[in-house]
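Show me any protein, keeping tokens residue-aligned.
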Amino acid sequence: MGLFKELVSTFVVDPLIQKANNKKDARVSAEIDVERQRKWEERKRERDAQLKALKNSVPSVPPERMRATIQLNQFRQGRTGKKRVSHLLGDDSFVYIETGEDIKYSVDMILELPESERALIKQYHLDDIVLEDVAAHSEEDFIRLRIESEEEAEAKRDPLRREVSKQISANVETLWKAERRITRVGDLVVSPYSRDFDTPHEANDYAEKLKTKFLPEVRKLLDRYKGNQPIGTFEF
């Protein structure tokens, strides 16, 4: 009799409970999504206007050498969090909601190149050259991940599912630690090139890095490959 009850619970009752809980989650998400979409469109219009202004500020005369136009902007970005949805039966669940807005600071750049220099980048595959290779996630990111993981595990009523949730979270953290943020020459050539930061100080520092490190390195590469003849007779 105990085995029969377990089978009924696993294959009949639990799926019915999950189906009902999914419907509730869908209703909560639908109510949130309408307002989130309106705010997203409003913020996107503001951001698009900034990038359009950047393009309009580019000199109309075609460049004879590599030329960069850089601007610092600030824009609104939605702050997303999880809302716990309680259920009388089955595990509690979570839906993503917008909890507010943050001000972000961007470094926006348009990098122009004469056709001859674009051809050099393509011919010698310079777009694949790495300029910077850093960790993709900060310690603050990992702290937030661990807090959210604990909340998700705690929402599981069944001990086994709770342990599975913790293991999944541990695997995610391992993947995050392996992720890198890589900046290549080809990234800078994309128009416009943008990087976002939490503070104006970080944005200013990065703009300086573009001007004093990345762009001079690109210039050095282009000069090196101009008129480069890989074969022939050389004197040293």
